[in-house]
């Protein structure tokens, strides 16, 4: 069964063709393909206009690379939420048009569920029930997956998502964008044990909180920055944007200490939930799951097998959407033509 | 949920500070000693909020913008925690009134803000909170409550509430009547 997946929920315009929910025939992400020069125009970072410009070319390219004709397809899968309304609308309406024109089933997919299904695209079959940790710029969710489409939400962030914390700390330390890889690179040369940054354990809850950690990094950076300059009275600084002047070594140590704190919390809480609920496996997904320290630490500390998609399948992509659709379809489910976007969709 | 025993304290109601153009004296200066106090202030603002109200939040990373919004959400009868919309740009919640929590953190140009089609939210039937509002002041409605947050120490923050328009002057005068928040008023000397 061949399924075309379309993903436009956030920044990435993506399309993929997947066979039987497991085998990727093509998997394209617009930002990683040179469409810009071919189609021209200014592509704003966050706007539905970007999706409008790139969606059709990226879908055509995905079909071509998969050597698939419209008549070979068995269904159209599209992310219907969560995400930005205008962006979701582009994907959903294109998917509807294709499905209607080709007489194919249409299936709306939850973006978060898609991240979990990236684990079905790596050649092994996850062993359920599993604890799923989805960590990205917009989400930090911990779930119990009992079966296909059967989820129990356990916890989520109460303030900043893990990926957002990486991005903002990278900005504080002036390490560049995107923040995840920038922190990881700087941290590689730093000492993660140098600073003991706060970990929000939120006892008796599977929720996360990374806002306090971000603020602690800001205060630490301001303090170190001021000390480097003069006497060191940064604590009473009331400017909203504090100028940070830090040595490279100092930045590396703060980045490493920050990364250590995030990974500590993510791994400890995930492993605790897995033990408590008797899960057979831990599944990771989302952009932050590409972080090497997280992958290594989770592997070391988990008493049960873990699965983590390769980095390209951790970030937003359409193959995961097509994979999820396969299992939905084989369970006899599909969406109606009245499929609507759900910007605030949750899982479970 | 925020139930700190400490009270918000009015530092000064006269001190002129920051951006905005409110009538002198209509402004309100507050000192929050903890995230819980900031949430409590938000909660009162949420209770006072009416259809069409707009809160513009200005302040650097970690200043407490999302924290204040969590309180506003609670004040509107929304359970749970409003999370940062920095990446997703807009979160919406259903309470006594719909809450649209908008964050311009990732947007770099006015064109990008315009492309978002915020008017549906800003002139809609709910309450809007816009974080990093300074990035798009020129395309946001001129009548609003501007809240500027800044650091005083690791845990305490300075909040300046600056009303633009009758509606928000009225909101602040109502806020000043709430003894739970404002135990005593002090003129900055």
Tags for this entry?
heterodimer; A: 348 residues; alpha/beta; Nucleotidyltransferase, domain 5; 2 domains; five-stranded mixed β-sheet; 11 helices; 10 strands; globular; B: 189 residues; eight-stranded mixed β-sheet; disordered C terminus
What does this structure look like?
- The complex is a heterodimer of chains A (348) and B (189).
- Chain A is an alpha/beta fold and 348 residues long.
- Chain A has two domains: 2-122 and 313-330, Nucleotidyltransferase, domain 5 (2-Layer Sandwich); 130-308, Nucleotidyltransferase, domain 5, CATH 3.30.420.
- Chain A has eleven helices and ten strands.
- Chain A has a five-stranded mixed β-sheet, sandwiched between helices.
- In chain A, strand 7 and strand 8 (150-156) form a beta hairpin.
- Chain B has helices spanning 35-48, 65-75, 110-115, 119-122, 166-175, and strands spanning 9-12, 28-32, 54-58, 90-94, 98-103, 127-131, 144-151, 157-164.
- At the A-B interface, helix 5 and helix 7 of A face helix 2, strand 4, helix 3 and strand 7 of B.
Short précis:
The complex is a heterodimer of chains A (348) and B (189). Chain A has 348 residues and is of the alpha/beta class.
Q: Which class of secondary structure composition applies to the elements of chain A?
A: alpha/beta
Strand content of chain B: 15-25%
Largest sheet of chain B: 8 strands, mixed
- Record the strand order, biggest sheet of chain B: 1-2-8-7-3-6-5-4
Radius of gyration of chain A over all CA atoms, rounded: 21 Å
Total of DSSP H or I helical runs spanning 4+ residues of chain B: 5
CATH topology category name of the largest domain in chain A: Nucleotidyltransferase, domain 5
């Amino acid at each position: 069964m061949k399924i075309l997946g379309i993903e436009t929920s956030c920044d990435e315009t993506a399309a993929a063709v997947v066979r039987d929910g497991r085998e990727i025939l093509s998997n394209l992400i617009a930002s990683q393909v040179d469409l810009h020069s071919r189609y021209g125009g200014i592509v704003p970072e966050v706007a539905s206009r970007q999706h409008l410009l790139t969606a059709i070319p990226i879908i055509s390219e995905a079909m071509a690379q998969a050597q698939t004709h419209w008549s070979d397809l068995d269904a159209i899968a599209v992310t219907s939420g969560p995400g930005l309304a205008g962006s979701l609308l582009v994907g959903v309406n294109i998917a509807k048009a294709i499905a209607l024109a080709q007489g194919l089933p249409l299936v709306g997919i939850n973006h978060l569920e898609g991240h979990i299904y990236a684990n079905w695209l790596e050649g092994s079959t996850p062993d359920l029930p599993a604890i799923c940790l989805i960590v990205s710029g917009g989400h930090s969710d911990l779930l119990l997956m009992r079966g296909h489409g059967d989820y129990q939400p356990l916890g989520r962030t109460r303030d900043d998502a893990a990926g957002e914390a990486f991005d903002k700390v990278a900005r504080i330390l002036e390490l560049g964008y995107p923040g995840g890889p920038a922190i990881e690179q700087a941290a590689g040369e730093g000492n993660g044990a140098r600073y003991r940054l706060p970990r929000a354990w939120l006892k008796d809850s599977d929720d996360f909180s990374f806002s306090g950690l971000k603020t602690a990094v800001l205060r630490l950076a301001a303090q170190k920055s001021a000390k480097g300059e003069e006497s060191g009275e940064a604590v009473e600084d009331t400017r909203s944007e504090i100028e940070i002047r830090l040595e490279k070594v100092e930045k590396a140590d703060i980045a490493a200490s920050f990364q250590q704190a995030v990974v500590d919390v993510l791994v400890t809480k995930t492993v605790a939930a897995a033990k408590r609920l008797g899960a057979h496996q831990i599944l990771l997904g989302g952009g932050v799951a590409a972080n090497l320290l997280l992958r290594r630490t989770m592997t070391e500390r988990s008493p049960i097998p873990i699965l983590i998609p390769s980095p390209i399948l951790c970030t937003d992509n359409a193959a995961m959407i097509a994979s999820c659709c396969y299992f939905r379809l084989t369970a006899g489910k599909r969406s109606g033509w009245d499929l609507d976007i759900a910007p605030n969709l949750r899982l479970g | 949920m925020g139930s700190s025993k400490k009270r918000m304290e009015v530092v000064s109601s006269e001190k002129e500070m920051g951006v905005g153009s409110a009538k002198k004296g209509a402004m309100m200066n507050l000192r929050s000693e903890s995230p819980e106090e900031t949430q409590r202030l938000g909660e009162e603002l949420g209770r006072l909020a009416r259809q069409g109200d707009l809160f513009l939040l200005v302040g650097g990373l970690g200043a407490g913008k999302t924290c204040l919004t969590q309180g506003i959400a609670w004040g509107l009868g929304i359970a749970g925690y409003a999370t940062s919309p920095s990446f997703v740009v807009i979160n919406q919640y259903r309470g006594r009134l719909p809450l649209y929590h908008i964050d311009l953190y990732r947007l770099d140009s006015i064109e990008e803000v315009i492309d978002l089609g915020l008017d549906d939210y800003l002139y809609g039937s709910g309450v809007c909170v816009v974080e990093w509002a300074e990035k798009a002041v020129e395309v946001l409605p001129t009548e609003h409550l501007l809240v500027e947050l800044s650091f005083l120490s690791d845990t305490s923050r300075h909040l300046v509430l600056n009303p633009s328009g009758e509606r928000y002057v009225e909101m602040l005068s109502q806020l000043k009547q709430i003894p739970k928040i404002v135990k005593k008023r002090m003129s900055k000397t």
